[in-house]
Amino acid sequence: MAYEFIQTRVEGDKVGIITLNRPKQLNALNGELMREMGQALKEFDGNEAIGCMIITGSEKAFAAGADIGAMATYSFADVYRDDYITRDWETIRSIRKPVIAAVSGFALGGGCELAMMCDFIIAADNAKFGQPEIKLGVIPGAGGTQRLPRAVGKSKAMDMCLTARMMDATEAERAGLVSRVVPLDKLMDEALGAALIICGFGRLAVMAAKECVNRAFEGSLNDGVMFERRLFHALFATTDQKEGMDAFVNKRAAAFKHQ
Ligand code: CO8
């Protein structure tokens, strides 16, 4: 299957690898990319030969967030009526085989959220994680306000969401956001090694372990994510969202009016 915004390949006949492929936009996540990723994940999940998947980006960016240019002019009515952006982001949650995020470079906004939707994160030493949506006059919209506190605790999650600061790989490992940090040139070897170990175990036990850990992690997450989505969509009714995103697109500082 040929995709426009992702590349797929199979390693060792059993590990499905999805590489985000919008390098000029630092792998900014648009609707079509997320649709393609959902399709690729579902195909690997349904392929008897595949035992584990890896999602990765480029050296500079896993993904620098949802595509701000695409979102900049949307109204509340647009995003709420069409469940815009959020629609195709949920596919990954229905995947039953393990999905590893191999993160190098920026994992910001929706990019950080995508990494957190994977089962675990292996980071290169140049990885940077952040939820900078507040700078755009919005908030995380794909589970960031729910998964980040569960991963790193309330204080650090508040710090990240309210100040928009980035966390480097060392801090991310210390805080429990990522499971391992490796030198950049070893990232894919490390992720592939972990995936092949998983593939060597019984498929049913692997799926059951994933399901159970998620059960522990996701109690009442649905409510949290729905709540977050309504507020994320509602922020498209504000002047500050238009200002924040227009400022980014036009490469100028935002002047928020708090309305
Ligand atoms: N969207 C669109 N384009 C982007 C994005 C983005 N998120 N990030 C970078 N780009 C583009 C830039 O516009 C630039 O394009 P061009 O070359 O045409 O000017 C190109 O990528 C390279 O970027 P920079 O020149 O800015 O590269 P730098 O190395 O100077 O900076 C940064 C890298 C720090 C990553 C910077 O690009 C940046 O701050 N990007 C935006 C990060 C951000 O705010 N992310 C959050 C986006 S909002 C979001 O993710 C909401 C999630 C909601 C999900 C809801 C779904 C359910």
Question: Would you kindly provide a written description of the structure presented here, covering whatever features stand out?
Answer:
Belongs to the enoyl-CoA hydratase/isomerase family. One of its GO terms (molecular function) is enoyl-CoA hydratase activity. It is an enzyme of class 4 (lyase). This is Enoyl-CoA hydratase. It contains eleven helices and ten strands. The chain has 259 residues and is an alpha/beta fold. The strands form two sheets. Strands 1-2-3-5-7-10 form a six-stranded mixed beta sheet, with helices on both faces. Strand 2, helix 1 and strand 3 form a beta-alpha-beta unit. It is globular. The mean pLDDT is 93. Octanoyl-coenzyme A (CO8) is lined by residues 25-26, 28, 64-69, 85-86, 89, 106, 108-110, 132-133, 136, 140-142.
Outline the secondary-structure elements.
Layout: E1 6-11, E2 15-20, H1 31-45, E3 52-56, E4 61-63, H2 68-71, H3 76-81, E5 99-103, E6 106-108, H4 110-117, E7 120-124, E8 128-130, H5 144-152, H6 154-163, E9 167-168, H7 169-175, E10 180-182, H8 187-200, H9 203-218, H10 221-234, H11 239-249
Parallel strand pairs: 2-3, 3-5, 4-6, 5-7, 6-8, 7-10
Antiparallel strand pairs: 1-2, 8-9
What tags apply to this protein structure?
single chain; 259 residues; alpha/beta; six-stranded mixed beta sheet; four-stranded mixed beta sheet; 11 helices; 44% helix; globular; binds octanoyl-coenzyme A
Please provide the count of β strands.
10
**Regions with pLDDT < 50 over 5+ consecutive residues?**
none
Q: What percent of residues are in strands?
A: 15-25%
Return the string of H and E elements. Answer: EEHEEHHEEHEEHHEHEHHHH
- Provide mean pLDDT, rounded: 93
Portion of residues within helices: 40-55%
Shape: globular
